[in-house]
Amino acid sequence: MMNKNKGECTRKLIIEKATELFTQCGYNHTSLNQILKATGLAKGGFYFHFKSKEELGVAVIKTLDECWIKELLPDMRDCANARDKLVRLCEAPGDCSCKGAVRPAILLLNLATEMIEVNDKFSEMLRGVFLGWRRMLELIIEEGKKEKIFREDIDSKAVAAIILSNILGANLLAMLNRNINLYRLQLRTLNEVLFVGILK
């Protein structure tokens, strides 16, 4: 029987390598052979941990929240208020600046584009990820309302969705044009325009 720690490490390795491959190539264009080559495992080793590529896809999606927090969200613990948190978020580097192969925003966009109409399980999970990310931003907007920094009449959910859509879209635009400055410019502009509309 496989050592438990070794088994957990192997499972984690498969998820990490699949995350990189799904980000770079998409889910449909990533073969089991590519995953095996990236992990150095034989088929039996893979199937010990996952019954199918779809089960692996589910495991990858489950790690998206952790990836987003680790790779993209800046540390906001020392921010004085909700406005400072949003400013820091807009100043943080996006996926397009990530040196590693883990790019959660691009992975979310890739998987959503591929799966939204063909795989109900993936679609539902990806919607959940998007809603979770949006909810995190919504809580910051609500915090700003309580602090009497943001207007109380704004729709927190809608503003959070605008911010998240801009983060996702700016990452995609920068990646398409191979120019990270486009991300910085769009987020800097969002920062300027956003506070014209929501500050009291």
The global form is elongated
Report the biggest beta sheet as strand number plus sense, adding barrel if it closes. none
- The level of helicity is over 70%
Quick one: how many beta strands? 0
Mean pLDDT: 89
What number of domains? Answer: 2
Rg for CA atoms: 19 Å
* Count of runs of 4 or more consecutive helical residues: 10
Relevant CATH superfamily of the largest domain: Tetracycline Repressor, domain 2
Give the helix/strand class. Answer: mainly alpha
Fill in the CATH topology of the largest domain: Tetracycline Repressor, domain 2
Under CATH at level 1, the class of the largest domain stands as Mainly Alpha
Unreliable residue stretches = none
What is the strand content?
under 5%
Distance between the termini: 63 Å
Sketch the topology as an H/E string, one letter per element: HHHHHHHHHH
